[in-house]
Amino acid sequence: MKLLLDIGLSRVKWARSQNGSLQQQGALEHHGSADHIFYLLESKELADADSVCIAFVGEKSTQERLEYLIWKHWQIAAEFIVADEEALNIFNGYSYPEELEADRWLAMLALHNERLPVCIIDCGARITVDVLNNLGQHIGGLSFAGLKQLHLVAAQARGQKLTELLGDHGQGFSEDGFLATNARDAVFAGSFYSVVATLDRVAQDLQQAFEEGLRFILTGGDAEQLQALLNFEADYRPGLVFEGMVAYFQKKNQKKLAV
């Protein structure tokens, strides 16, 4: 059994993969440290894996510490995905391919057998937008602060911790009575409208550039709640990065068998 991990700036997501099929997925918020991430993995009893594959976004020191902990406690050499120039007929558009984050690369690989062109919007702590043309060429992308980062900046500006700003209400938002009557709701409503307005404008510009045929896919922890507020149609694919991992390893195994 292969353990697949998608570790972003604020969440660790996992899935089990057996014979090319995804099983038992989950996600939890993490505090940013490798020790806390590993603690979360241990708490979910994920140590029975034969191998560990990781899409990691964060500091190099955190990655190295996590790699050490997995080896020390599980005796597994974790494999960290790095973006290539090309895989599965998907072509990386970055001048330096390895600079493209692994989760964005894997999300694109997940669509290698699907209808193109496509725009992938990953709604995590940071929001990324990537576009593949009809030939599978990654023509570029965008990256900007998502809801979690906007909330964090707002809390810091008020001299608060994020947990103090959130209170007992979490990060939800409703369009009902969207003009806020307290500081917390004002921050949350403003953050949602900022993100939604940006994504709507990006989608509008892309639709004009492609004229027709461009479809949109949403993924990431905040995608589902943002989807209802957007003025364009998009499919929600929460496991897109894991789908890309499965495709990546299937191709890798085929190459090994061909040698």
Descriptive account of the structure:
The protein has 8 helices and 12 strands. It is of the alpha/beta class and 259 residues long. It has 2 domains: 2-80, ATPase, nucleotide binding domain (Nucleotidyltransferase, domain 5, 2-Layer Sandwich); 86-146 and 186-258, ATPase, nucleotide binding domain (Nucleotidyltransferase, domain 5, 2-Layer Sandwich). The strands form 3 sheets. Strands 3-2-1-4-5 form a 5-stranded mixed sheet, covered by helices on one side. Strands 10-9-8-11-12 form a 5-stranded mixed sheet. A two-stranded antiparallel ribbon has the order 6-7. The longest helix is centred in the C-terminal third of the chain and has 28 residues, at 183-210.
Strand content: 15-25%
Report the uncertain regions. none
CATH architecture of the largest domain: 2-Layer Sandwich
Give helix % range: 25-40%
Enzyme class: transferase
Binding site for K(+): 122
Subcellular location: Cytoplasm
InterPro entries: ATPase_NBD, Type_III_PanK
